[in-house]
Amino acid sequence: MYVPEKWYESLQVKNNDGRVRAGDLVARDIRIKTENGKIERNHISGDTITAEANDGSSTLENVKASLVKVKSENGKIVLKNLDSRVSGKAGDGSILFTTRHLNHPVELRAIDGNIKIQTEENPANATIRASAEDGRVDIFGSSDGNRVFGSGKPLIQLFTADGNIAVEKTK
Q1: Going along the chain, which residue ranges are E strands?
Q2: Is 87 within the bounds of a domain?
Q3: 97 forms bridges with which residues in the sheet?
Q4: How many domains are there within the chain?
Q5: Backbone angles phi and psi of 45, in degrees to 5
């Protein structure tokens, strides 16, 4: 599917089986959903960007938005270079978030999977709350699941029922 380059009020894509690739888009509201397949988004801008995959992975890269919401029932979530508030939920799959710095609120939850945040810089200001029911927590080398940096804002919330949580500087 080809979508001409321009500003859109709303863009919705639903796919039952296969890969959805979206790039170089600007819209107020972007929603992409697939039942069985991959979602790949690169260079997207908007107010609210939503990606939902029931059985497949979601990759979002170079995204600028007020809010990014990503959900995968069975598959990994990969987030790279997002300039937005982030909400991510994985049922059976891992979540990897790579960013320059943690300067927006983040909430990542996994039922059966690891959560890893890689950042180029230690946060100057943030509160990181991490909980792994059946796994380990490692926040910049500390097993303390509650860390406060500077003013304590924004709030970074991380939870996994069965998996490990790591927040580390990019190697």
Answers
A1: 7-17, 20-36, 39-55, 58-74, 77-92, 95-99, 106-112, 115-119, 126-132, 137-139, 146-149, 155-162, 165-169
A2: no
A3: 79, 117
A4: 1
A5: -135, 145
Exposure string (b/e) for 88-109, b if CB count within 10 Å is 16 or more? bbbbebbbbbbbeebbbbbbbb
What pLDDT score does 113 carry? 97
Residue 44 confidence (pLDDT): 82
Whole-angstrom distance, CA of residue 95 vs CA of residue 103? 18
Q: Is residue 25 part of a domain?
A: no
Residue 39: inside a domain: no
**Can you tell me the distance from the alpha carbon of 25 to that of 45, in angstroms, rounded to the nearest whole number?**
6
pTM summary value: 0.90
**pLDDT value, residue 34:** 84
Query: What pLDDT is attached to residue 163?
Result: 97
- At 114-136, the pLDDT tens digits run 999 999 989 999 999 999 999 99
Please list the ranges in the chain whose pLDDT falls under 70. 1-8, 18, 21-24, 41
When computed from its CA atoms, the radius of gyration of the chain, rounded to whole angstroms, is: 16
Q: Residue 130 sits in which domain range?
A: 94-171
* Residue appearing with tokens 């909430």: 107
| Interacting residues of 4 by C-beta distance below 8 A, sequence separation 6+ | none
